Amino acid sequence: MVAKGYKVAFAFAGLIFASTAQADIAIYGPGGPTPAFKEAAKAFEQQSGIGVAVTGGPSSKWMEDAKTQADAIYSGSQNMMDDFIVAHGTILAETVEPLYLRPSAILVRKGNPKGIKGIADLVDRELGLMVVDGAGQVGMWEDVVGRMADVTAMHSFRANIDYLAPNSGDARDTWKADPSLDAWLIWNHWQIDNPDIADMVPTEPELTIYRDTAIARTEKGRDNDEVTQFIEFVKSDEGAKIFGAHGWQHSFN
Q1: What pLDDT, in 10s, does the model give residues 165-188?
Q2: Looking at CB atoms within 10 Å, which of 56, 129, 138, 230 has the fewest?
Q3: What is the mean pLDDT of residues 234-238?
Q4: DSSP string, 100-166
Q5: Which one-letter DSSP state was computed for residue 35?
Q6: Cα–Cα distance, 33 to 246 (Å, whole number)
C-alpha cells in the first residue's frame, strides 16, 4: 500500500468467465452481471433446450471475439453500453433494453472490524479505502459523495482514496491481496457473489445510487428468435428471481 494519495492501475485485470460448451446463441458483457446471466442461461437452457454461451469480464478480453460471435451484449451501466456500441460496431442502439438495477454499497473486512457504518466514515476517518473508477463505475464514487452536497466532503473523500481500480475484477484481486484496505466502494452484488471475502455495509439511503444492466442485440442477433426467447426469460418472473438472488431488482422503491 502506498501512502495516502491514490495510485492508478492502468492494465486491465480481473477474471474472465466464459462458457466453452457448444451453444445456440452467444452473449458477452462485463464481469459484474455475469454470475446472474450465467445462472439465467443455465435455467433457460434447462427449460427451452436452447444453449446460451455467456462470456464475461473486462471488454478488452472479449471484444474482438464479440465483433463476429455475439448475438447480444449486456452492460453494467448506460455509459458502458454506449462505449460498447462504439467499440463493437454492430450493436443495434435502438434495441438497448435496461433490465435490472443494483445499489452502491461498501464492502468491509469480515466482521467489519473497523466498525464502518457508511460513507460519512469514509469521509471523516483515516481508513484504507478503494474505489473503482472504470467500466460501469465511471464517476460512481463522485455521484455518491456528491449527494452530500458539500465540496469539503468531496475533497476529504478523494484525499482518503488509497487505490483507484480500473475495473471491479482488478479491485477484487487487490482486495484479496492487500489487507491494509478496510473499505471498498462498489456495487452490492460483488459481496453477494463473493461472500467469503467481505461483508457489506449499505451506503446511506440518501447517498445511494443505482445503475443498471442492459442488453442489446447485435446485427448478427437482430432477427434471432432464440435471442428473443432468452431476453424474455431474463425479464420474466423466473429471471427476476435469479437476478434478485444476486442483488439486482426492477425497483428499489
Answers
A1: 998 889 999 999 999 999 999 999
A2: 138
A3: 98
A4: EEEEEEEEE-TT-TT---SHHHHHHS---EEEE-SGGGTTHHHHHHHTT--HHHHHHHHHHEEEEES
A5: H
A6: 9
